[in-house]
Amino acid sequence: MVVKLDSLMFYSMQVCHLESVVEIEQLVFSNPWTKRDFEFALKRDNAYCRVVFVGELLVGYVIGFFIKKEFHLADFSIHPNQQRQGLGRRTLEVLVGDLSTLAHVISLEVRMSNVAAIELYKQFAFQTMAIRKDYYTQPQEDALVMLKPLQGKLSDWVTEALAGLS
Questions:
Q1: pTM of the model
Q2: What is the domain extent for residue 38?
Q3: CA–CA separation, 148 and 128 (whole Å)
């Protein structure tokens, strides 16, 4: 199926979407979230849960959490049959636009072997800040911690975050 990028629609995730979301999650990740994990996310006050549709077909989703001025991107995926068509890029564009006035920085972890995702994040000016040893299981693997400033420079946010620790 060829997808027209301008035909993407973004909606708040609802319980009725979870069957499709869990199916995508299981196809994409070696250690997938469960339906219960998604239900928990939907109930959290600080959650941002969106689904991505092309026409009537649910093709992806984004889950994240606001932690003060930070937005942590916890789960993001496009159905394997829909990947490599620009949907991930377009989804990130919408996410960054939505968050531009709501958070100062976006954080995420990504498997070091997930070169395609790392390259996509780099195109959006995410910067690698740390490596989390053995962060992932099934299979065990390190994670890159990446951050993207939404307001100001990343160094400004780091300075502000460190000041809050003292």
A1: 0.89
A2: 5-163
A3: 9
Rounded Cα distance between 17 and 79, Å, is: 14
Q: Judge whether 36 and 75 are in contact, CB under 8 Å.
A: no
Query: Phi-psi category of 55—alpha, beta or left, where left has phi over 0 and alpha has psi -120 to 50?
Result: left
Residue type, 6: D
Domain count, the chain: 1
Decide if 144 contacts 113 (C-beta within 8 A). no
We report the CATH number of the domain holding residue 110 as 3.40.630.30
Tokens of 18: 């979870």
The predicted structure's pLDDT at residue 2? 40
Q: Give the contacts of 161 (CB within 8 A, at least 6 positions apart).
A: 70
pLDDT of residue 166: 63
Q: Return the H-helix or E-strand segment holding 132.
A: strand 127-136
* Cα 165 from chain centre: 26
Q: Which residues pair with 127 in a beta bridge?
A: 147
Cα–Cα distance between 115 and 118 in angstroms, integer? 5
pLDDT along the chain (166 residues), means of 10: 62 96 96 96 96 94 95 96 91 93 95 94 95 92 94 73 67
